Amino acid sequence: MALIVGGSAGIGQAAAEQIVRCGHGVIVTYRRHPEGAEEVVNRIAARGGTAAALPLDVGDTASFDDFAGRVRDTLQRTWQTGTLDALVNNAGVSGTAMLGEHTEENYERLHRVLLKGPLFLTQALAPMLADGGAIVNTTSTSTHAAGTTPGYSVYAAMKGGLVVLTRYLAGELSSRGIRVNSVSPGPTRTRLADDAFEKYPELIAPLADRIALGRIGEPADVGAVIAFLVSEEARWITGQDVEASGGHDL
């Protein structure tokens, strides 16, 4: 069984569908997009898989103990098990600001969702994660030297912190055989930044020009990498940040 945080749209939704094809049941979480979660659950059911959806605000760490209880109840009720095989920390939030424009409110918002949330949610769910299981965190090519774009300093700093956290958790959880990796997407067509690609399609061509394979990513491109990393085929990979960007800024 796999839990995909932020699974109601974009990369998380694609990862859920790919993971089901590998034989797992999935729980997807949503915050403001319940219809997307319902859509992915119904689509998986139509293909013979099993999925469930639960609400979660990754920025609200005080809710995590209650959420862990709801995950446990859902696992028992739907799959008659008390354990997870995989956890995908994929909740996202975006925001840009140049030096002199930063506010503590926006800084804290990015910190809560992109770094603090994944840490404490993983801590809350670790007891029910099966030995030999897998954790995948979604990071970003904004953390790479070649991916530097003005305005993304705080966003990239939080994602960079998640890359470092991934490496440390890989060491700390290795005694249980739990692998921890991250996936670093480049520009990808998702709902982040208030559906920017949908609203401003003129942004796409300049970004595609910076990608070696000549286009921006689709959610399925990254979802397939996440599904691979939670699978048995990736059993000898841990502590890595895997770039899935089509060659962003090569």
UniProtKB/TrEMBL annotation:
Gene Ontology molecular function: oxidoreductase activity
Alphabetical UniProt keywords: Oxidoreductase
Segments forming domain Ketoreductase: 3-186
Domain of life from the UniProt record: Bacteria
Annotated CDD domains: SDR_c
PANTHER family found in the cross-reference section: OXIDOREDUCTASE, SHORT-CHAIN DEHYDROGENASE/REDUCTASE FAMILY (AFU_ORTHOLOGUE AFUA_5G02870) (PTHR43639), SHORT-CHAIN DEHYDROGENASE_REDUCTASE FAMILY PROTEIN (PTHR43639:SF1)
Family affiliation: Belongs to the short-chain dehydrogenases/reductases (SDR) family.
Record protein name field: 3-oxoacyl-ACP reductase
Organism: Sediminivirga luteola
Lineage: Bacteria, Bacillati, Actinomycetota, Actinomycetes, Micrococcales
